Amino acid sequence: MAASGGHSRSPLPQPRGRLSAELIDAIKDARTSLTGVTPDSEEDLQLSLWTLYELHYRGFRGIDDGLEWAPGLLAARAQLEADFEVRLRTMTDALTNETADAATTVDRLIAITAHDDGEPSLATYLQREATRTQYQDFLRQRSLYHLKESDPHAWALPRLTGGPKVALAELLYDEYGAGLPIRLHSELFARALAAAGLDCSYGAYVDQASAETLAVNNAMSLFGLHRRLLGASMGHLAAFEMTSSFPCRRFAMGAERLGFGNDVAAYFDEHVEADAVHEQIAARDISQELVRMEPDLAEGIAFGAAACVVLDAAANRALMTSWAAEDDAKPTAI
């Protein structure tokens, strides 16, 4: 299967509750208002919010682009966002409070990203123990972000000035292929999916994404699409880059152990080196410089970094838990 991350659009997802069902029907029918915006469950909320955000990225196959700015849909999104943001702040309060006395922004980011929730390491499991099917599950979950890699953080570029703007542009230049379309990180991931025998089309696995995976993606979009959350967006970026390089080395080793095609390991190998550089750019040249220029952004940067750490841990935990449940359900050999 040839890689084709390209300019394809996502299919509309399957609903997971009353809210997402009404929303998806409204989008199909080009209706711009909903009768209510109370979700049935966390999955219903996260899928609904992801669907509303996707209207601002590539949209959906066969759907009117004008719905991106439909007032009724924006009002529904705002209500869901408000609830999501409150819960994010509650989830991250302990981590931001316990690192508040750090001497510098970089020191605080290091403290936040060093947080250990005591859970088994997903990266270590994929390196040493995961089956091919489990590794494919991991790639499916990650595809929701990696086929639009860096796009949520790119919303911040026009909101920055001076050194942080230059630094973000430098980082994004690498993420977007350093001038070569074939080197786009989203394209590299599409080739990894294809090499693993998976569908590499944009949005192909949204229906298999857990609520936790959807929340990871929704937080990036929430931060990126709101100018008032600029600090959170850049703090998230810093934490994302600072927690990437070492796990990617383990992901690559796991792909090699399982005998996947070279393109799978190559994607993660690319990030071992690139993200070691990017973490310095994101933490020092963007986040710390932003705080020097605008001290009021300090708490937002810490919030975004903590959200990255907490949500990624939850998504990893959900994936590991699903595998453990599958193992428990297997019949015991006699």
Could you characterize what this model shows?
With 334 residues, the chain is an all-alpha fold. The protein has two domains: 18-82, no CATH class; 99-327, Heme oxygenase-like (Heme Oxygenase, Chain A, Up-down Bundle), CATH 1.20.910.10. It has 14 helices and no strands. Helix 2 (42-54) crosses helix 3, helix 3 packs across helix 14 (298-329) and helix 10 (211-225) runs antiparallel to helix 14 (298-329). The chain is globular and about 50 Å long. The N and C termini lie far apart (41 Å). The relative contact order is 0.15.
What is the typical, i.e. mean, pLDDT? 94
Number of strands: 0
Secondary structural class = mainly alpha
CATH architecture of the largest domain: Up-down Bundle
In total, how many domains does the architecture comprise?
Answer: 2
Give the percentage of residues in beta strands: under 5%
CATH hierarchy, class of the largest domain: Mainly Alpha
Query: What's the story with the biggest beta sheet?
Result: none
By DSSP (H or I, 4+ residues per run), the number of helices equals 14
For the termini, the CA-CA separation is: 41 Å
Helix and strand pattern: HHHHHHHHHHHHHH
Q: What are the segments in which pLDDT stays under 50 over at least 5 consecutive residues?
A: 1-7
Radius of gyration: 20 Å
CATH topology of the largest domain: Heme Oxygenase, Chain A
In CATH, the homologous superfamily of the largest domain goes by the name Heme oxygenase-like
Helix content: 55-70%
What is the overall silhouette?
A: globular
